[in-house]
Structure formats: C-alpha cells, structure tokens
C-alpha cells in the first residue's frame, strides 16, 4: 500500500467512477483501476461496488476513505512542518491545461508526472481552461505556463510547439455523413460548422474559416466552449467541427462520429509562457515538458515531435 493508492481511492469515491477520477488526477484510467484492484487484493476486501449507477464505495470502502484522508492530511502536515523548521519554502508550480487531460492527448499524463518528478516535493496546481480562456490565467499571472493549442493571440506570450497530431471532423451520429469513412477538405468546407466560444482567430481555425475564406456556421445551436459541450451540441444538430484525433480517443462519445479528412493541417500541442517571465524555474518547467514529450512521443498515435 502506498500514498498513490490512497489518493486514487479517495478520488474514485468522490468522483463516483474510475474515469472521472483519472481525469481529476491527470492520469490514465487503466493504471488507476489496476492500482485499486491490487489494493483490494492486498486488503482482502472489496472497496467499491460497480453498478449501472456508477462506482459506489462499500462500507469498508468508506471506512478506508475516511482513514486515507486522515493519513494524507498528516503526511502534508509533517512535510510542511519539516520544511518550515529548516526555512525551506514550498515550491508551487502552476499550470493551465486546456480541457484537462485532453490538453496534450496521451502525452498529458506523462508530462504532468515528469513535472512531479523533476520538482521533488513541489506542489503542482493545475488550472483547467476552456476554448475561450486558455491563456487568461497566464495573462493575469495565475499560472506559470499554459498547455495550449494554437493559434494564440497576444504579443506578450511566447509559444513553444511541442508535438503535432492529425485533426479529424466530428459530427453527430445522426449526421448524413456519419458513416462516411474518408472525406476531402473540399467536401468538408461545404458543411455548416459548430460555433465556438473562443478568440476569433482560434475559432476560425477549428471552424475551417481560414480554408473556406469565410464563415459558415450552423444557426440551430449556439457557440460552445468545451469538448463535452461540442459533443452534446453535435448530437442534436447537423453541424460539424474539427478536433484533434487524441480528443476523440480520450473523450469518446456514443453520440458522435469521427471522420478522417484529407488535407487538414495538424493540431499542435504547445507550451505558452509570458515573455517577461525570465525565472529559471519557468525555463526548467518548459525543459521538463519538452523532455517528457521526447521520451513518450510514441504514446501519441500519429504524433510528430516538434521540439
């Protein structure tokens, strides 16, 4: 039994499932599920009941959660007390992540873990952003770096491309093209697109306005600012929108279909930071992200390293 397993059990209990717990902890679901199963085997008790209502802690599970919270609180207290006694200030790394675990596709989890390993004892604060505000926390100084998908507006930001992956077209399962296997860019440009609540330059890219030479939006639904909002809107309209392929893998939805499109430019995962931020710790964070991407690029299907 280790502290990681304690955190996993608490997250599953509080989130009501393994998938939302993995999303909250910015880790992949399979190793989280395996760790909890190993813990149940070690203890010889069942901590969770799996049902159509979700994942619910058993009586033993709730007892474990209560005790685990106490243990983690004590660990934090001991760590803070020791640091305080020797005058060591706690290092806090603040990172904005676009759409949570979807920010860098399958690279998100190993990158976050690399930051934890690269700054031992540091607290990592993850700030989840949406289409409309992916650099706002960076602009105001609430975070040190931001995981983004360009284009990014603002001369005050420097943007380092890390890796790229293909984009695809997403439509509702009822869409006339839902069963089409492959489309050309010309075919896609004739389709009305889902409006995005985002900076104009960014929205135009994902709505393909830049390729079309103008806007063609579906009038039946309003703009959305999140992946889940886009998926929901597509299930009830004949609109379409482009997304990175990793998004469709990590956030599957029975109500939408993913279509390959020839001729689309790739989606680029990048790290943004303030040009005025010359601190060594910021540069080290960027270096750690780049190194983690180099090490784990094979986890991103069809991914290409850019750094």
Automatic annotation (TrEMBL):
<dbReference type="GO" id="GO:0003677">
    <property type="term" value="F:DNA binding"/>
</dbReference>
<dbReference type="InterPro" id="IPR036390">
    <property type="entry name" value="WH_DNA-bd_sf"/>
</dbReference>
<feature type="domain" description="HTH lysR-type">
    <location>
        <begin position="1"/>
        <end position="58"/>
    </location>
</feature>
<keyword id="KW-0238">DNA-binding</keyword>
<dbReference type="GO" id="GO:0032993">
    <property type="term" value="C:protein-DNA complex"/>
</dbReference>
<dbReference type="InterPro" id="IPR000847">
    <property type="entry name" value="LysR_HTH_N"/>
</dbReference>
<dbReference type="GO" id="GO:0003700">
    <property type="term" value="F:DNA-binding transcription factor activity"/>
</dbReference>
<dbReference type="InterPro" id="IPR036388">
    <property type="entry name" value="WH-like_DNA-bd_sf"/>
</dbReference>
<comment type="similarity">
    <text>Belongs to the LysR transcriptional regulatory family.</text>
</comment>
<protein>
    <submittedName>
        <fullName>LysR family transcriptional regulator</fullName>
    </submittedName>
</protein>
<keyword id="KW-0805">Transcription regulation</keyword>
<dbReference type="Pfam" id="PF00126">
    <property type="entry name" value="HTH_1"/>
</dbReference>
<dbReference type="Pfam" id="PF03466">
    <property type="entry name" value="LysR_substrate"/>
</dbReference>
<keyword id="KW-0804">Transcription</keyword>
<dbReference type="InterPro" id="IPR005119">
    <property type="entry name" value="LysR_subst-bd"/>
</dbReference>
């Amino acid at each position: 039994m280790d502290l990681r397993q304690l955190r996993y059990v608490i997250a599953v209990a509080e989130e009501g499932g393994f998938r939302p717990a993995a999303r909250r902890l910015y880790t992949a679901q399979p190793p989280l599920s395996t760790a909890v199963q190993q813990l149940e085997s070690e203890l010889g008790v069942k901590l969770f009941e799996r049902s159509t209502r979700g994942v619910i802690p058993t009586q033993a599970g709730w007892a474990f959660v209560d005790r685990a919270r106490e243990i983690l609180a004590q660990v934090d207290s001991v760590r803070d007390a020791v640091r305080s006694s020797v005058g060591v200030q706690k290092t806090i790394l603040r990172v904005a992540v676009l759409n949570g675990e979807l920010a860098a596709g399958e690279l998100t989890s190993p990158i976050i873990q690399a930051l934890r390993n690269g700054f031992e004892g540091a607290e990592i604060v993850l700030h989840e952003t949406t289409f409309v505000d992916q650099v706002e926390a960076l602009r105001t100084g609430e975070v040190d770096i931001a995981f983004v998908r360009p284009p990014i507006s603002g001369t005050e930001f420097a943007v380092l491309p890390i890796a790229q992956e293909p984009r695809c077209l997403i439509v509702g399962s009822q869409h006339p093209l839902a069963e089409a296997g492959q489309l050309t860019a010309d075919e896609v440009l004739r389709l009305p697109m889902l409006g995005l609540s985002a900076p104009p330059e960014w929205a135009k890219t994902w709505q393909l306005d830049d390729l079309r030479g103008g806007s063609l939006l579906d009038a039946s639904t309003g703009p959305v600012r999140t992946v889940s909002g886009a998926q929901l809107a597509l299930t009830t309209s004949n609109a379409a929108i482009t997304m990175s392929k990793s998004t469709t893998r990590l956030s599957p939805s029975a109500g939408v279909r993913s279509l390959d499109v020839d001729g689309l430019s790739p989606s680029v995962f990048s790290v943004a930071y303030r040009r005025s931020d010359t601190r060594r710790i910021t540069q080290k964070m960027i270096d750690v992200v780049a190194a983690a991407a180099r090490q784990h690029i094979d986890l991103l299907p069809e991914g290409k390293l850019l750094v």
